[in-house]
Amino acid sequence: LIKSNKKEIRALGARALGILASHPARDDDSVSNCSMTLRSMFANADGLVGSDANTAEGALLALGYLNPRSVYYDRAFPTDVEYPLKYVVDVNGSSSLHTAALEAFSQLWSARLALPSPDGDYSIKKVVTSLSSEAKKGNEKAIAALGRLAVGLVEPETDGADEKSEGRLAPGILGTIIEELFALHEIKQVEVQFTVGEALTAAMARWDSNAVKLTMDVEARGTQFRADAREDVVEAVLAKLLQNSKVTKPSLLKASGIWLFCAVQYCSHLTQVQSSLREIQASFMRLLSAEFRHC
Q: Which of 201, 203, 221, 267 has minimal Cβ neighbours within 10 Å of its Cβ?
């Protein structure tokens, strides 16, 4: 199935393979052999064409499901894997390979796998810059990938003083990702703004966001991947959204309303959201009034 000429079939086959091949009923050797086979299938994928290219894309996506499910099942799997981040950063090659890479790495990052290094040709800054550039064009896969990269990030401990003085919502790369997501308010398509909202909840609440939890398709046995909500970031993002819901700029006002809705939809159980429900309701009333005035 992962070799199919139809991308929808490849995607379904990749997910099924990832779930079944990583199941605890299978021994470690079979998982290792499966991983090795998949990696050989997408080696030098950017130089392949036709059915070989389809196979490479399916194999890359399958590995993107296989290894995270191994993490969720809390089982052994090959960790000495060189993940091809170049397919995420280099957008001049095959667009379908790039799309498969965005989905595969979104899965991997959610499980804290394949995180970019601080330096090198495919450093985390270059990855964020590349994804942000595509996100500005309305690429929903890239927007979702930014959120999932934020889920997997392990930020260094800071006292937060420098970040607050700069008016940032979060420190380091996480702060950059959130800023890039906020910058997407100019995009007019409503469905894209809902994707941005989901990515924001993923970035601030990680596995405490139902948007992330709902992508879990196996019965997890491990817990080490379940990073809790970043409470300070949740509070800061909500405060910013509430502030932006009072502005007069139509695009920012509309986007902020959608993102607030996503925060309630996916994170209503969080204390920070619970304590802000009255303000959020007032913001929704203002947004509805503004919409009526423009009708």
A: 221
